[in-house]
Design a protein that fits this description.
Distance between the termini of chain B: 8 Å
Largest interface: B-C, 49 and 42 residues
Number of domains of chain C: 1
Order of helices and strands of chain C: EHHHHHHHHHHE
Radius of gyration of chain B: 24 Å
Shape of chain B: flat
Structural class of chain C: mainly alpha
CATH architecture of chain C: Orthogonal Bundle
Number of strands of chain C: 2
CATH class of chain C: Mainly Alpha
Number of strands of chain B: 0
Helix content of chain B: over 70%
Largest sheet of chain C: 2 strands, antiparallel
Distance between the termini of chain C: 14 Å
CATH superfamily of chain C: MetI-like
Oligomer: heterotrimer
Order of helices and strands of chain B: HHHHHHHHHHHH
Number of helices of chain C: 10
Structural class of chain B: mainly alpha
Chains: A alpha/beta (551), B mainly alpha (316), C mainly alpha (284)
Strand content of chain C: under 5%
Number of helices of chain B: 12
Strand order of the largest sheet of chain C: 1-2
CATH topology of chain C: MetI-like fold
Chain lengths: 551, 316, 284
């Protein structure tokens, strides 16, 4: 097979806001054969998107290609003039962006934007272009392919927009298509359809592809070869099978092990004698005007009941919009429930946090997803950790300072961090501080609302390990909310599945291998596995898909 | 037009009317708070207490404020604007002629400055960072930072005193030909255009720069679109809302500028009338002029908001 | 862990801050005028009301650096004294406007509900009146004494400060760390002062500077119309007003006060745009 893409010794420089120039891509070599799909995998900051964009001769503002050659079918994108580069874009090399929703112009119809490439480069008449677009829509399994083009971007769902973005890239008949994390923002059930659509169209046309992602399992389904990136350098490369089964480089091994978190000792079966720590009965909550029955117009949580025992963890899993975050806020009292009871430690709690006793507020803490907005950027760490100490326990002076050191120790962070501000910390460190702040209150129950969803896999795995250790040391209970099944499986004794505001099924660890409810079945089977043949052999009952899933 | 748009437009109109009511009440209240009694001012120093009391009664000055406001408001709507204290003429007569003059001045300024400023604003945004952009930015910031009378006096210095091309003062009654007309309008219009354009340029430039840094513009670039295509088809349609908003806001500066320009060039417009009225504490005239300005400004702002609502594709 | 990347060019600065020459120059100009305003009686060469020249609008000379005004008084001295009024009134006005705006804005954001709605509606109505117009109307009502001018200017520019501070505070209010503090049981005052205020103080200071420029311009405009600072006192705008006849001769008496105003306003604008920035050594 002949080589379509050759990246030789690529160096890319960026200028920081203080005027310094640093290298973000440090000498990368990549070769791609015609018809191959190659994956660039790595965590955020590894440079994978930067490399992908340079294939189009494009760098984000502040960056520039300082050295190296980017040969696509013989043409060096690095040395072409800007005008020649614009000729190549869309016709020979095309790009499918990460956030399709942002990449579409809100004031133009979808069809106009999909065929725009043909208008820019004069490839075919508008009518032919429209026909071609509709063919592509069909090939990508989009609903109502004849009419979907007439809509505006905001009238179409996320998964559909992602496929439309792919159609927009393919319409120019490019030789190379770059996919930039296209399924990251989608639910697992939607992701399956989108992945299948991409794969079939690429293989059918023999189109070369570059697939950028941080998710090994997704990449395993679609890529022939994988390049592992870290810090702007290639750590390892090989065929998908080789990388997955016999990774050579320690970083690759780290990535793989983070993917399958270690299982540890779990608490045994429930003892019926112990009184549950938290009991929730028929809680309903939502948004909008209150109707005659006292319930809000939009019910995000419908009559959900659950219980959590001391020392045990409950996981709540579901896709976006199922109400799990709303349920968390209900329990914490941030969004008062409209109906139902919340009983904590035997005492009934007021629905509204503002009316609860401080003791109850102290013993139940909540940790949020985005540490950037959960920590006050204007305060140093010691103030962030110190305030709950003063507020809840009245600690001051040296006692307070000693406790702050203890807390930092507990979350495995160096004591010197107490003088820093949140902006100086990494994502993983911030999330640990977030957690330390919850610990400062000496709680009994910690509600973790998607705390690992914004973190890289390796960092997230470390956080999960920390949670497990702390649970043993401090006899805590967790309610762990996530959309990521593997994370929930790693830490929870019981799992509750939610769909559209309702509790659909309650599973113990043993049940998790074989869920009973149809939606749970669909959800669990939609999670990509590290097996490259998984996607091709996946058979989802069409009835289930029609009822619950898809976009 | 679907019902959602109709509802938002109606809501906007209601807000405009309420704002106008609040504003006119504020104007009335502010001027009615005058320390010193209107009646004794009118009658002068030598008035007897009985005469003052009698006049107060005749002018209904002892009625509660709300009642006076309502009466004044009613009169306003029916065209009876009362009499000016200082000039002893019906206000409606005074105002109408001057109003036309100011409208002419404002109209010509708008016609010249809006296309000029929009072009400069858009082009400097597209060529952000270039020498052209930097020059435009520096000059614009310079004009915005200084008082209008300084721009006006600089213009007078350059064109009337040193170059002697144009007259320093506008004498409306001595216009005998088109040439005279042009010469008379040139300085006020030019100065006002500078002031207003600077504001429009700055706000337009910011709006276009913002749309040019959106992800969908980057996507268009990645599809190989040319710069002109990106600007005309992607950036501008989405910058339309903020640009119309900027034009409406610059009207505020137009009004402020008109006040200064008419004074410095002695132009017989309604703004100069108002300034004179303040100097002589001529209450009814002040109230009338203020409300006319505010109403006009509110109407134009409301139109701008409605255009922004209609042009939002998410509501279609 | 932060990735330390090898740097290609080194950063410059004192104490970890990077100073911009334009910003430094602007700051010096502002400092200059502040000193002039504070020490006016000690700096002015002639008493401010004294007639020192037989000629009106006399030329610039060694004796009278900026010539004489329409009555034969020294222009330089009048400008030096005028600095007190321009800077003093504007500073007083902006302090009142900004503090009221920030206090009310934060309160509205944190308390919410009908308080926020009513106050915001009222402020929006006030903003919709063009400022010069508003200034004229209020001056017509309450006169042009110094306290009246200060309060008028403060009143006209408080709504803008309110709207800005409120928007910032509302933004911060939606952040999770505020929710965390609320759920802890913290009271409103703590939330406003300890959590929100430190996050909005920088943009608020920038707005303070911008508002100062607006107030200087409005004050000068009113004085230029004869409705601001009244004789025998004079701020820079009033100086332009009383010497306007000198424009046809190109007299310094009318140009110099304008230039003084311009130097002040442009410097404040430039300073805000070119504040010394902390060098953040973060890799991309």
């Amino acid at each position: 097979m002949s080589t379509l893409v050759e990246i030789k010794n690529l160096h890319v420089e960026a200028t920081t806001d203080s005027g310094r120039r640093i290298e973000i891509i440090k000498g990368v070599d990549i070769e791609i054969a015609k018809g191959e799909i190659v994956a660039l995998i790595g965590e955020s900051g590894s440079g994978k998107t930067t490399i992908a964009l340079t294939l189009m001769g494009y760098t984000r503002p502040g960056c520039r290609i300082s050295e190296g050659a980017l040969l696509i079918d013989g043409k060096d994108m690095a040395t072409l003039s800007e005008r020649e580069r614009t000729k190549v874009r869309g016709t020979e090399v095309a790009y499918v962006p990460q956030s399709a929703a942002a990449a579409f112009n809100p004031s133009q119809t979808i069809m106009d934007q999909v065929i725009e490439v043909t208008r820019i480069h004069g490839l075919m008449s508008p009518d032919k272009a429209r026909q071609r677009a509709i063919e592509l829509f069909k090939a990508l399994s989009l609903p109502s392919p004849e009419t979907i083009g007439e809509r505006y971007p905001h009238q179409v769902s996320g998964g559909q927009l992602q496929r439309l973005a792919a159609a927009m890239a393919l319409i120019g008949g490019p030789k190379l298509v770059i996919f930039d994390e296209p399924t990251t923002a989608l639910d697992v059930t939607t992701q399956i359809d989108v992945l299948k659509a991409f794969k079939s169209v690429m293989k059918a046309g023999g189109i070369t592809g570059v697939y950028v992602s941080h998710d090994l399992a997704v990449v395993a389904q679609i890529a022939d070869r994988i390049f592992v990136l870290k810090g702007g350098e290639v750590q390892e490369e090989g065929t998908t099978q080789a990388i997955l089964s016999t990774p050579a480089h320690p970083y690759t091994q780290e990535l793989l092990s983070a993917f399958e978190p270690q299982e540890t000792q779990f608490a045994g079966k429930r003892t019926d004698k112990a009184q549950p720590l938290l009991v929730i009965e028929n809680v309903t909550a939502g948004y909008g005007r209150v109707q005659e029955d006292g319930l809000p117009l939009v019910k995000a949580v419908r009559s959900v009941s659950l219980s959590v025992e001391k020392g045990r963890n409950l996981g709540i899993i579901g896709e976006s919009g199922c109400g799990k975050s709303t349920l968390a806020r209900c329990i914490a009292g941030i969004l008062p429930a409209s109906a139902g009871n919340i009983i904590f430690n035997g005492k009934e709690l007021d629905h509204d946090a503002r009316r609860r006793f401080h003791e109850a507020l102290r013993e139940m803490q909540i940790v949020f997803q985005y540490a950037d907005t959960a920590l006050n950027p204007a305060k140093p760490i010691e103030d962030i950790l110190g305030r709950p100490l003063t507020f809840y326990h009245g600690l001051n002076g040296s006692a307070r300072s000693a406790r702050i050191d203890e807390l930092l120790d507990m979350v495995r962070l160096p004591k010197a961090l107490r003088y820093r501000h949140p902006s100086e910390l990494s994502g993983g460190q911030k999330q640990r501080i977030n957690f330390a702040r919850a610990l400062a209150a000496n709680p009994k129950l910690i509600i973790c609302d998607e705390i690992t969803s914004a973190l890289d896999t390796v960092v997230a795995a470390a956080i999960i390990e920390l949670l497990k250790d702390l649970q043993r040391e401090l006899d805590l209970s967790y309610i762990f909310i996530s959309h990521d099944l593997s994370v929930v499986e790693a830490i929870c004794d019981e799992v509750m599945v939610m769909y559209r505001g309702e509790k659909v099924e309650h599973l113990t660890r043993e049940d998790m291998k074989s869920p009973a409810h149809p939606y749970s079945k669909l959800l669990f089977s939609s999670v990509p596995k590290l097996d490259p043949t998984w996607l091709d052999t996946l058979v989802l009952e069409p009835e289930l898909v029609r009822q619950y899933g898809g976009a | 037009m679907n019902s959602e748009i109709a509802r938002m437009v109606a809501k906007r109109l209601v807000i405009a009317v309420i704002t106008l009511l609040i504003v006119s009440f504020a104007v009335f209240f502010a001027t009615a708070m005058l320390p010193g009694d209107t009646a004794s001012i009118l009658l002068g120093q030598s008035a007897t207490p009985e005469a003052v009391a009698g006049l107060r009664q005749a002018m209904h000055l002892d009625d509660p404020a709300m009642l006076r406001f309502l009466r004044w408001g009613l009169g306003f709507l029916t065209g009876d604007l009362g009499k000016s204290y200082a000039n002893d003429m019906p206000i409606s007569v005074l105002v109408s002629g001057r109003f036309v003059n100011t409208m002419q001045l404002a109209g010509i300024t708008a016609l010249i400055s809006i296309p000029f400023a929009l072009t400069l604003g858009i082009t400097s945004a597209v060529m952000q960072g270039s020498l052209y952009d930097r020059v435009v930015t520096i000059v614009t910031i310079g004009v915005i930072s200084v008082p209008e009378f300084m721009v006006a006096s600089t213009a007078v210095l350059v064109f009337a005193v040193y170059l002697k091309w144009l007259p320093a003062i506008s004498l409306v009654n001595e216009v005998h030909s088109l040439y005279d007309l042009l010469r008379m309008y040139a300085m006020p219009v030019m100065t006002l255009t500078f002031v207003v354009s600077a504001q429009i340029i700055r706000m337009t430039r910011a709006a276009v720069i913002e749309t040019l840094s959106t992800p969908y513009v980057e996507m268009a670039r990645l599809k190989g679109a040319s710069r002109s295509r990106i600007v005309l088809r992607h950036a501008l349609p989405n910058a339309l809302g903020p640009i119309v908003n900027a034009l409406a806001l610059s009207l505020s500066y137009l009004i402020g500028g008109v006040i200064i320009i008419e004074t410095i060039f002695n132009y017989p417009g309604i703004a100069k009338l108002m300034v004179d009225a303040v100097a002589t504490r001529d209450l009814p005239l002040i109230q009338t002029c203020a409300v006319i300005f505010c109403a006009g400004y509110l109407i134009l702002i409301t139109i701008a908001d409605i255009i922004a609502i209609i042009s939002n594709p998410r509501l279609r | 862990m932060m990735q330390s990347a090898p740097s290609i060019s080194a950063a410059t600065g004192f104490f970890g801050y990077r100073f911009n020459p334009v910003g430094v120059l602007a700051f010096l100009v502002i400092l200059f005028w502040t000193v002039v305003a504070l020490f006016a009686p000690h700096i002015a060469p002639y008493p401010v009301g004294k007639i020192v020249d037989m000629d009106y609008f006399g030329p610039m000379s060694a004796k009278l650096w900026l010539g004489s005004d329409y009555l034969g008084r020294d222009v330089l001295s009048r400008i030096i004294y005028g600095a007190r009024y321009t800077l003093g009134i504007a500073l007083a006005g902006v302090l009142i406007a900004s503090s009221c705006g920030v206090i009310f804005g934060m309160a509205a954001a944190v308390i919410g509900g009908w308080f926020d709605a009513a106050l915001s509606r009222f402020m929006d109505a006030m903003i919709s009146i063009p400022s010069k117009l508003f200034g004229l109307v209020i001056v017509a009502a309450v006169g042009s004494s110094l306290p009246a001018l200060i309060l008028t200017l403060a009143f006209i520019y408080t709504p803008g400060s309110y709207r800005f501070a409120r928007a910032l505070a509302v933004n911060v209010n939606t952040m999770d760390f505020i929710t965390v503090a609320r759920v802890r049981g913290e009271n409103t005052l703590y939330l406003a002062v300890s959590e929100i205020l430190p996050n909005i103080i920088r943009p608020v200071l920038a707005d303070f500077g911008i508002r100062f420029v607006f107030i200087v311009l409005l004050l000068s405009g009113l004085s230029f119309l004869g409705l601001g600072v009244q004789p025998p006192l004079a701020d820079w705008g009033a100086l332009v007003h009383e010497n306007i006849q000198g424009l046809s001769f190109g007299a310094a008496a009318v140009i110099a006060p304008s230039l003084a105003i311009a130097s002040l306003t442009i410097s404040v604008n430039l300073l805000i745009d070119n504040l010394p920035r902390k060098i953040r050594d973060r890799s991309a």
